[in-house]
Amino acid sequence: MILPIVAYGHSVLKKVAVDVDINDPELPTLLENMWETMYNAEGVGIAAPQIGKSLRIFVIDASPFAEGESPEEAAVLKNFKKVFINAEIIEENGESWSFKEGCLSIPGVNEKISRKSEVTIKYLDENFKEQQETYTGLAARVIQHEYDHIEGVLFTDKISSLKKKLIQSKLTNISKGNIPQGYPMIFPSLKKRR
User: Which of 36, 126, 146, 151 is catalytic?
Assistant: First the structure.
């Protein structure tokens, strides 16, 4: 089922999410709905807070980023479709690099964000098996972006105060629902679905 995506300004996006109960009988349905919602919105990742659930879970399919990358990076991204449950970033390493990021909860806003080039993450996969893996490049970036969501952090929290002032009217319009969007959303100022 396609769920509405929570827009910028909603309090659930600023909360640190709680661990997922892997015995929850609704978990398989939640995962299915997250994939369907993400694909419908043409995203490469979505975290549970973005659908109004303050849970430590996110899904990623980075295959759209494969085109135009080096053969090595493209090979990783082409098959990078994963579920991350109760994730914990162990460390971030490498050079910091900037890349223009966007977010399904903040449609129409893209800003350059600096992140470390390597991340090591521990998580449960969709079969509830514990994994610990290290990723680099765009895969690391997408993981860090989605991980921020379960920590109550948005990419706009990482931009300078000057840049934030420059986009403040856009952010206000998003929270009020005064934006065109191609997928269902919940706007905090309206307290209803559109």
Answer: 146
pLDDT at 194: 44
Structural domain includes residue 194:
no
The angle at the Cα of 102, spanning 97 to 174, to the nearest 5 degrees, equals 140
Q: Residue 21 domain-assigned?
A: yes
In a domain, 186, yes or no: no
Average pLDDT per 10 consecutive residues for the chain, totaling 194 residues: 97 97 96 98 97 98 87 87 98 96 96 98 97 96 98 97 95 92 85 47
Asked if the structure places residue 188 within a domain, the reply is no
Distance of alpha carbon 169 from alpha carbon 109, whole angstroms: 11
Is 146 an active-site residue? yes
CATH number at residue 162: 3.90.45.10
Q: Which residues of 18-45 are buried (b: 16+ CB within 10 A; e: fewer)?
A: eebeeeeeebeebbebbeebbeebebbb
